[in-house]
Specification:
CATH class of the largest domain: Alpha Beta
Shape: elongated
CATH architecture of the largest domain: 3-Layer(aba) Sandwich
Strand content: 15-25%
Oligomer: single chain
Number of helices: 12
Number of strands: 20
Length: about 450
């Protein structure tokens, strides 16, 4: 075409090559077999180091692997009211000192965000606010030369593309909106933090492919009755997974907790039966928490099994092994298990601590106040070794614990570390029955007979 229909100018039309068809539209050269050949590269060759932008919040930077990567997309999920918007507004305020940051809210008006900023004391932070839900407008803003270097989208379930007829929050809208934000983030090198709603099961709402599309998936979790909040990484292309950051919710926002073990054990009473201190590993950090168990006679035909902070199926297995391999009678009793502090434990190394708490509750014998327990239990009643035993023991020694009940170490582990730290006395066990014998060997006035 020689003449433009809009401005009537001659030879003014220029061909524009589109890298990808618009979302939701079919056709294209690939569908017609007219694609271009790919150019491959080898595994060897120079590569740019991953540039990270630290937020200044140490616990947040720990979970993300050392800071935010330019051009990365992070998805943060959590229960309603747990503090996702509070956390990200604090991150935006700290990040604004070194980068241009924008906060786009699709759920709240600008005045509502300002009220939260006033409560957090970050009103002077250089953060640009906007209330928008149209992804096309957001992408146009990010694509400008003076656009932000980091943007927070709260939340992805409120965003929509006008080329789709479905309502915001549907599977098609969530997937298409996220794809547009990811595309502009990769092309412009913008760090995008997306807030995602969760379902009643605790998983992020929308298509599961949303978690595959982003670079990092973080879950912000915690019990409403506790002031502790846990930021957990379940996926991270630029750092370790299963890393956690611990925060404390206060009237002035979230405060970092550099030593979570001391915080989780702050209200512990060491002379009560049915309690055991577990030395666990969360990501790269050893964490000590208290496991509480209560075993009581049940008036019901089917005894209760109530678990908070641990896997109920794992508890059923430990109870079965205690009954079959250690001779304890627990079938006609109610069992209540709680992980104090509102943290959730997922690793099998907590089996031995749970078993010790159950045996202590049944026998009435309190574990020594300076004892920690860890180890995995097998179905045949054996106690299996776990990873990073020395790190767990060192953390226990730092907090003043002098004894540890742990699995017997293998010869290779003994050669690497022939002895425990001088301040900690280790008791190695190979069978679950040995733990029962240890608790039964208390002074006569402190124990009750164990039902077998």
């Amino acid at each position: 075409m020689g003449r433009c229909d809009s401005c009537n100018a001659w030879n003014a039309i220029v061909e524009e090559v589109v890298d990808a068809p618009p979302v939701g539209r079919g056709g294209g050269r690939a569908a017609q077999g007219g694609g271009r050949a790919l150019s491959f590269a080898t595994l060897q060759g120079p590569s740019d180091s991953t540039a990270r932008r630290k937020t200044g919040i140490a616990e947040f930077d720990r979970v993300t692997g050392g800071g935010l990567v330019e051009g990365s997309v992070l998805l943060i999920g959590g229960d309603p009211g747990i503090g996702k918007s509070t956390l990200l507004l604090q991150v935006a305020a700290r990040l604004g000192a070194s980068a241009r940051v924008a906060y786009v809210s699709g759920e709240e008006a600008i005045d509502q965000v300002r009220l939260r900023a006033a409560r957090l004391g970050v009103t002077e932070a250089p953060v640009d606010l906007a209330a928008a839900t149209n992804v096309r407008d957001i992408v146009a803003t990010l694509d400008a030369e003076s656009g932000p270097q980091a943007v927070i989208v709260d939340s992805i379930q409120t965003m929509y593309l006008d080329i789709l007829e479905s309502a915001p929050g549907t599977v098609a809208q969530v997937r298409a909106s996220a794809q547009e934000l990811i595309r502009i983030a990769k092309r412009r090198g913008i760090t995008v933090l997306i807030v995602g709603h969760v379902t009643k099961e605790g998983t992020i709402a929308g298509p599961r492919v949303l978690e595959h599309m982003v670079d990092t998936v973080l879950y912000f979790e915690g019990e409403r009755g506790h002031q502790f909040r846990i930021l957990r990484a379940v996926k991270n292309r630029f750092g370790p997974t299963d890393e956690i950051g611990v925060f404390e919710m206060t009237d002035g926002g979230l405060i970092e907790v550099p030593n979570p073990s001391a915080l989780f054990l702050a209200e512990r009473q060491g002379d009560v039966s049915g309690a055991a201190v577990f030395a666990g590993i969360e990501g790269s950090r050893p964490v000590l928490v208290e496991i509480q168990a209560l075993v009581a006679p049940s008036p019901l035909a089917t005894p209760r099994r109530t678990v908070v902070g641990w896997d109920s199926g794992r508890l059923a297995m430990v109870v079965a092994v205690l009954e079959t391999r250690a001779g304890l009678s627990l079938s006609g009793r109610d069992i209540y298990l709680n992980v104090a502090g509102g943290i959730r434990i997922a690793e099998p190394a907590a089996d031995l601590a749970v078993a010790a708490a159950l045996v202590s509750s049944v026998s009435g014998v309190a574990l020594p106040a300076d004892t920690v327990v860890f180890g995995e239990i097998g179905l045949s009643g054996e106690v299996r070794g776990v990873t990073r035993s020395e790190g767990r023991i060192k953390e226990a020694g730092k907090l003043g614990f002098g004894k540890v009940i742990m699995p017997a170490r293998r010869a290779r582990e003994r050669s690497k570390s022939p002895r425990h730290p001088a301040s900690v006395e280790g008791t190695e066990v190979t069978r679950l029955a040995e733990v029962v014998d240890l608790l039964a060997a208390a002074p006569q006035g402190q124990r009750q007979p164990v039902s077998v």
